[in-house]
Amino acid sequence: MSGHNRTAVSKQPPKTRRIDGIATDLGTREFLCTIAEWLRREDVLNSTVATVELVLAEATNNIIEHAYTGNAGPGVFWAELSLLESDLEVALCDLGRAFPEGLLPSGDLPDLDVALEQLPEGGFGWFLIYSQTKSVHYTRETGQNTLLLSFELGTDQK
Amino acid sequence: MRLNSRIISNVNVVTVKETRIDAAVAIQFKDEMRAITDEGPDRVVLDLSEVGFVDSSGLGAIVAMKKHFGTEKTFELAGLTHDVAKVFQLTRMDMIFTIHDSADPFTAQAAG
């Protein structure tokens, strides 16, 4: 991009950061705020920070509701963030239950063409995750779920 | 969860005095909304101008309120910030709600 101050003649190694969270609603909040703070400090655009925060909120809510449901105590999760030249990659990991059959859920938007009393109050999470990311990959290895999410950093203003 | 209710010209303008409506407060939001709107005007305007973040749990809680009011009360939204408006657009919930740019016209009537 012209007018950009970061003239990387030799390629910089990606900036990385690991952030840990506790699988409770308030733990998720703290986790998301820490990530947003770090991204802002690294000069990531506000609109991109908002997108990343929304997607990670949906993905961690899913960990709490499904991966760790029925557990005695709250589980843990963590994100490994890598800030590349034009992308942000986030590996979101937990030690909870695997996705059924090792497959990610579908991300269809719930039908809104229904009577008022049948309007959906949920089912938007995976739609938001897929629609706001460049790619989503899931792996399960030795008791660990890893959701690899990639985002375009974007160049628009504000 | 702090909600501020002002009844002006027979409209209940409820301002959310929090920066987030997320999974941590979704149930509380519904409970307190019900309590604060139980009595009073049949028109409720939810002022979201101080809210910078809504996830699908928060969105679901707002939808739940619309269903709660049913045909008995009108439930409208106002003052959506950029990132909150985006969640409504992405999920097409902007087609389901009447959304005002600001709650100011409803509260300004007090002076006139």
UniProtKB/TrEMBL annotation, chain A:
Entry GO MF terms: protein serine/threonine kinase activity
Enzyme nomenclature, EC number: 2.7.11.1
Leading EC class: transferase
Cross-referenced InterPro entries: Anti-sigma-factor_SerPK, HATPase_C_sf, HATPase_dom
Pfam families: HATPase_c_2
All copies of domain Histidine kinase/HSP90-like ATPase, residue ranges: 30-150
Protein name: Serine-protein kinase RsbW
Lineage of producing organism: Bacteria, Pseudomonadati, Pseudomonadota, Alphaproteobacteria, Rhodobacterales
From TrEMBL, chain B:
Domain (STAS): residue spans on this chain: 21-93
GO function terms (MF aspect): anti-sigma factor antagonist activity
InterPro entries cross-referenced by the UniProt entry: STAS_dom (IPR002645), STAS_dom_sf (IPR036513)
Entries under Pfam families matching the protein: STAS (PF01740)
PANTHER family in the record: ANTI-SIGMA FACTOR ANTAGONIST TM_1081-RELATED, ANTI-SIGMA FACTOR ANTAGONIST TM_1081-RELATED-RELATED
Name this protein carries in UniProt: Putative anti-sigma factor antagonist
Species name: Roseovarius albus
